[in-house]
Amino acid sequence: MTASPPRRGAAAAHRRWRRRAWVAFLLAPAAFTMLAFVVWPMLSAFGYAFEAFDGLVAVRFAGLANFGDVLADHATWHALGHNLIVFAGLMTVQNGLAYLLAFALLKGLPGHRVHQAIVFVPVVLSAVIVGFLWKLFLHPLFGLVNVLTGLLGFAPHPWLGDESTALGAIIGVNAWHWIGFPTLIFLAGMQRVPRETMEAARLDGAGDWVLLTRIVWPLIGPSVTIVFILTFIGSFNWFELPYVMAGLTGSPGGATDVLGLLFYRTAFGTVSSSIQDFGHGSALAVLMFVFIAVVSAFALRMLRRREIEL
Amino acid sequence: MALATAGIAATVGTASPAAAGELTFWTWRQEDRPAYAELFRDFTRQNPDITIRFEAFAAENYNTILSTALAGGKGGDVIHARAYGGIEQFARAGYLMPLDAANVPELANLPADALAAETLRSDNRVYAVPFASQTLGILVNRDAFAKAGVTLPDALDWDGFLAVCRQLKAKGVTPIANGTATAWMDEVFAGVVTAPFIGPALVEDIRAGRTTFEDPRYTAALAKLLDLRESLPPGYTGVDYPTAQQLFISGRAAMFVGGSFEIANFRKQNPKLALDFIAPPSPKPGEPRPVPKFYDGGYAVNAKGADTADALKLVRWMGTPAFGDRLVALLGNISPIKGVRVEDPLLAKVQQLNANSLPYVMAVYFRYETPTGSELLQNGVQRMMAGNVTPQQVGVDLTQGIAKYYAPFRK
User: What is the pTM of this model?
Assistant: First the structure.
């Protein structure tokens, strides 16, 4: 005996319903967490950005006034300039070195597996630990960096206390911390490049430099896209490392101030300025979000165009 | 991330349920936990039906945590509130209970300037019982002086001070431990050193708006800081607050420009430390040597607390001389309560120095709106000490920054 078509259809619908209910059940905790701790706060912040606060209380609708104030504030552009420097610095120092390291690892030199692990080790450390550790390394009185530069005949230098070197020092620490991540992404991309392509280029007399610039670089487009986008987002959300190493004020003299620190100071105040301003802080956060989202989307579109299907 | 942070912080309160008969006390001073345990035991002995739970939060995040909790109708029953601009936003939002002679008669035990530090300017009502005054000056490691064979004269003027610094340096001791890497310490450093050069008349002129920070008397005082660069640790622009503390405690540096709030901490870290506290040097021999002074915060009642009657009982007790005596003994702070006994000789000396004190200008007058005078001064001094701006430029930046909300500074 077989089930009639309508009963078969009902059973299938029931299975589908059960499957959907099961999927919904599994997704619910993550969805709830995202809604409660990401989506809802973000929407709230959007709302606060349009309100004027008297102390901690929203007192009236302010329209776009908060945005105007933030954009007219010299501190915003000063901090944005530093974020741009951070992005440029990380793209060249961190990602440039990561590209070279990935190529070296690809060549399978003796000990490359150990080196692959070593390069990635700092990534697993927290930014707070890295920042504190490097604060000690860069200390003007007993820091390891000054000891080493002293061996080379250089005078001790207050790396984090000099306006001309502080931001660069923190960018360098960020590169040390994160270099393993783009290295692995580049390496994964390079491993997808067909061996015949590389060998053919070698047979045609291409050296490492030509391979790196003419063969590998165009063929690892998707990896470059990921690294570029993540570096961009990370550079404009930069907070932990400058906070630990330079404090909320972006010491010395604002030389390491970035948008993340400015946002925190504006919204939550500091020890020396207990004034909290959620309206302007939220407006700055919204502008940062829009800027990062728009530029990332545009960059993604542009970078995707140069990707080559392997 | 910033966007979500803004939303969360502005809306989510921190729950802190207290049991019946139990009050919670919120503070940023984690280091005071043992002292408060003793203080609260005293209170519970007198009020057996009330116990108090001490809850401390990181100082740098305290305002954020407190404001989000209060906005959510939570927070401690009794709150350690900051002073001056730091209490205004909490009081203005209606989170704190106004205190007066009717509900806290012990306010009469406190001097007017202490109460002013916890008063909301718009309604002229007091919102917290002031807990301590802090005096800024020069902490001296007497052992370091003795080891170097250098004598610190009692009557200290600027030239004499520089001579002492030179002698210490010649003996291989860093004269002054301070660096400039920690911004808030730069304000302390500038506040102490410039106080005798500024004097009460200029402070009053600035407060009243009769002059600005571009006044040559002020910028000349700032310029004195530059004379001390040779006396600071090598690479001082990269030396932060904890390093400076350790240099001083260990005797590698002989002096530390700081506050009376350091005394208890320094003694705890090195009980054998031969510590002294002196006023900054006078401009010329025999001239006054005022010290900057401010009130550090107070005890406020959460207006939406579960048991405001018990909370008021606790706050009233915190305004009594008996509490003040214990606070001085346990915390090594100067209580502003009238008639408090200060038995520790060093604290007694600090209390004597208070007789010739000036308001700690930026904290007392220009921390109510942004950019605060403190932020501007810290930034300016940091840059000036690094040789990147002149004292005159610091004066201009201070004046222009404060002019955004202080009409007398607008030209």
Answer: 0.87
